[in-house]
Amino acid sequence: MIILPAIDLKGGRCVRLRQGRAEDAVVYSDDPVEMARRWRDEGAEWLHVVDLDGAFQGRPAHLAVLRAIAREIAVPIEFGGGLRTDADIEAVLGAGARRAILGTRACAEPEQVGALAARFGDRLAVGIDARDGRVQVKGWTETTAMTAADLARRMEGLGVRCLIYTDTSRDGMLAGVNAAAMDAMCAAVACDVIASGGVTSAGDVRALRALRRANLAGAIVGKALYEGRVTLPALREAACA
Q1: Which end of the chain is more exposed for a tag (fewer CB within 10 A), N or C?
Q2: Which among 51, 88, 129, 183 is annotated as catalytic?
């Protein structure tokens, strides 16, 4: 498993939200590039960068920050938030992201995902955000009737090679990972799954590893790192133990 430190961008700053609520943001740094440098220096193999303003507005708002991070560090970046058009995907990849993450569009326009998967291959991932097993879209402001497992199977059937599954009820709460939900998601598909939401400790990483799911490729960690609950080296050690 790879540990991916999260860098969430809002107003040009590095923040964390509680359960995706825009009004409940804590600013951790005014310099996202410096934060990216820190995670690189602590051994990050990937960075997970989210354009929160983009997610709420429906179009990327932090391409300049992405370019600056990509120029500064060689660590591959996955980037999501507001990618509603083909041009948005191209812009994100052109700005230096190794992988672009579709969210709302994958749920709203699933018939287009097959062509995108064929075109971009492993440079495309689909983010599935869910509360109580139901998919959420538009920056988690809308909950749909679709189940996360059904969407995952449909995305895999269309050629998507990587899914990022977030349990939104755990995100930013420092309450621990929902290992059962991650287990069910990994069981539903054969493609890679990256876990997100609630990863707070090395114990959470060990709980994910204990699932013994070969397609559980990584875990995203945010608030626990920023608040000093755990260190990136400790998480990486747990991921490899």
Answers
A1: C
A2: 129
Active site residue 24: no
- How far apart CA 162 and CA 213 sit, in angstroms, is 14
Concerning whether 51 is annotated as a catalytic residue, the answer is: no
Q: Residue 108 in 3-state DSSP?
A: helix
Of these residues, 8, 51, 167, 171, which one is catalytic?
8
- Indicate whether this model's pTM tops 0.85: yes
Q: Which two tokens stand for residue 123?
A: 């440079």
Of 78, 110, 21, the closest CA to residue 218 belongs to 78
> For residue 86, which of 59, 67, 66 has the smallest C-alpha distance?
59
Which residues have CB under 8 Å from 42's CB, separation 6+? Answer: 231, 232, 233
Could you tell me the two tokens for 230? Answer: 């755990």
Q: Where are the beta strands (DSSP E) in 117-212?
A: 124-131, 134-137, 142-147, 162-167, 192-196
The three-class DSSP label of residue 94 is helix
pLDDT tens profile 153-188? 999 999 999 999 998 877 655 678 999 999 999 999
Name the burial class of residue 2, with classes exposed (0-12), middle (13-18) and buried (19+) by CB atoms within 10 angstroms of its CB.
middle
